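Protein modeling request. Please complete all fields; requests missing the sequence field cannot be processed.
Requester role: graduate student
Desired output: 3D structure, token encoding
Chains: 1
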Amino acid sequence: MGTNTIGNQNWKLTLIRDYTVSQQNEIEYAMFGYGRTASELEDETRESAHLPTGLIHLLERSKLTSEALESGFTTEISTSTQDGRDWHCFTRTALAVKTLPGIPFQPTRAFYVIEDGEQFFEMIDLSCISQETTLPLKIWLRVIEIEADALAFAIDSNFYSCDGGHQTTLDAWIDFGSNQPNINDSSNKIPLPLPGPPDEPYKFR
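Delivered output (205 residues):
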């Protein structure tokens, strides 16, 4: 996985299903490891997280929810207008600066909302070049099947295995109504953020 030329501002994020944290068979509760590169995915300080509603919405529209729950997926991001039906435009609605102790620069975070709905995601400006944010007013996203090199990496790195094995229970496959977790209760869910435009092109590994 890699970006196109930096002038076009196209980049990718790989998301790999993490069975070691959650075996929930609902996309709203599944956990994903995420990173632009293999080294980011291997970073033990980065915890797996839930998907933001914006990515869940794109998976549903692209009919890739089952594939994402099984193995993961790739998100392609662009700052230039994309006309394909699988591309969707998000508009920046808010900017905020998060103060992090011990860090010389304070990263800017932005919320983006899809133009034809309420689904959103958070993006972090990773650029350290200037004080002005590089996060654009509009951004285009699409989700595709997890790319072959990322899938091979995940298999080689045992991302899909659980220590000691895992036996599912019947309620993982059958809806028992009130015993199911409340999907609307997001108090303990912190969705993963998306990376902003990179300072230079990169490859998955």
